[in-house]
Amino acid sequence: MDRRRFITTAATGSVGAAWLPGAARGEVRPDSGAPSASPQANGAGERTMQRLHPDAQTDLAGVEYFVLGNGHLIAAIQHATGAALAMGQTPLGLMLWDPHHFARKWSTYTFHPEWGLKRGMVTVRAGDEMFAVDPQSLTVRRVYPDGVPVVEAQWPAGPYRVTERYWMAADAPLLLREVTLHNPTAQAVPVAFTTTLYANHVLFSAHHTDHDAGALRADGYAHLELFADPVPTLNTRYLTVDAGTAPPRGTAAARLHYAANTRKEAVTTVAVPARWERASAYWDQFAAVQTPEPDLDQLYRAARDNLRAAISDEGRFDASMWQYNMEWLVDAAGVLLAATRTGQFDLAGTLLDHLCTHLVDDEGYTMHASRYRPGPGTELNQNGALLGAAWTYWAWTGDLERIERHWPTLQRVAELPLRPDYLHESGLVKASIELFERDASAGVLPGFDVAHQATVAWGLEKAADLAREVGDADSAERWKTAGTRMRETMLHDPTYALVEDGRLIKRRLPDGRRQATLVPEAVGSDLIPADSELARAGTARLDPDVGTLWPMLFGQVDPQSTLAQTTIADVKTLWNDATGGYLRYHPSGDPDAPGGWTFPTAIVGQVLARAGDTEGVRRVLDWFTSVQGARGGAYFEIYSDAPRPVPPLPPMGLIVWGWAEIASLFVSGLLGATPTPSGTTLRLDPHLPTGLDTLEATLRYRSHQIDVQVMRTATPQPATFDSDDLDYDPVNGVVLPDPLRSGTVVIPLP
To answer: What is the pTM for the complete model shown?
Structure first.
């Protein structure tokens, strides 16, 4: 079906009969464009129920999202094809929302209950002809002119071609949408563009047509406005820009401005060319990765850039956009690590501020699902994650002042796991919840989760290093002792070691017995839906579990050791043959729809890289560059071949932690970039995946810029730093000079 509608309306004087954006050809509607509000009778004489537009659905097959943002405003451009288009989703939809206030897809600023995102599309008049987006010929992609993240859409308009380019200002809640008609003919043609501002009726209750300012405005719980260059003509919620004449083989263009919680008068004090220069300079500061494979470059850049897009300028972010509307400290710690590793130091500092001031309570408990859970159900791994992330932030940035400012909070976070109700006589920490939040309702008994031990031990040992830096000798000694004992018990204790049959295992009980299965206690609850695998299985296996890789992730076990290799072999059986990606754990224990999970898959990829499993890393990368979401660089939390139980579970969203672990896969995995124990310089231990022979990167470490060149060579060659030879160890890589300086490191790989 041709999804364009021709509308006859008394629109702008310059357009005459205008296209209604988002309408399909052949249907004529009044200017209001709204369907009847009265209930309609179906064939049985019953009243139909109000339903949201199909655009409210987040994860239909064929839909891709392209995310932009700057801490003040988030934009997501939707491209619907295939099944999503057939279900009625808008082929080219624009969503805007405030990162400080989490949203569902249907509560974004530009979602209309009946029209979805359709009214935000642009229609074009070229001469006497009118054109709308042709969904079948529409292409959308990410591009980076001058290093600025841009979403570019192209679609044919008869003999002409239309290009739309969306980009975000670096320092204002302002999205710019540049629309250009390309005229390949030998005849000049006058051009006009029309769109509308149909603001979400849930959020906006007042709509203004400000002719004097040339802006459409909406007010309510927020403020939103649309204006344009050249100055447009307005009619109620419609905006038409006369773009002049496109000369033969030339172009005509207009620029649409979407401003949120500010006004045209404020944002136009900075000229657009200056805004572009600021955006280019902003993105130029950060760590870059370049390979011979454009798909890999796109994977890294989208992950890096979307971290900035998702996080408010106060450090808050929705753990999975449109899904949870809640915060988890462990997600934020992973994002903090990635922001640090990718050179986004200001963003990382803001995140650390937010974690320490808003996600930790007065006792040292950390927030998960936007709440605190004192007692055996608290996620002690989050305490370790924050401490380790804080040390990593300090090592990469050298910013000790921020650590000192938050030191009382970090002390509380470190001391909580050492309380008698959590610290077992073995030296391990005890809880009734595991890494992925299955708890007593799922049959998790009080005991020791391997990922909890690894994370808390890592965090305590790193916190001890920070304590020495800030002059807290007592804490340094206590935390170092506790962290080292925890690590040693986890790996070597004859009764409590989380090692069995030469592999790391998931869980032990306080008497030393292994917990190998789950018997759920709350089947049919919101936590254990009746049709979930865990509910149906009755007794579920706990191993294998990707959490057994955490000791390798934190450097507590050599990834190339026999213990690591045996454990990795078990985890690799969790690859999901149906949809790709790694399951979190054995599918019999899943209260959700089993499928490949985004951030665990990226974490497995990091460990595989450090273990030298080049084929395993390639499989992970190939999945990320081919699965739904790859074109836009925006990934769902889970990729399942079975429907999720929604409700009680929330709709699928775009997982922010996933972007973090993808970015870390490149920096910490492929490049093997980790601070030395002193934190003053950098170690590089690169492992290239199968088929990739070269990788170049620019890293930011403290005040230094480190250019990295990695390549496979047929004959042995020395590694160098600014032409000076470096000692290269095939197991540990190279350590850069200490004190560090800016320079170029070249690492030939055999």
So the answer is: 0.94
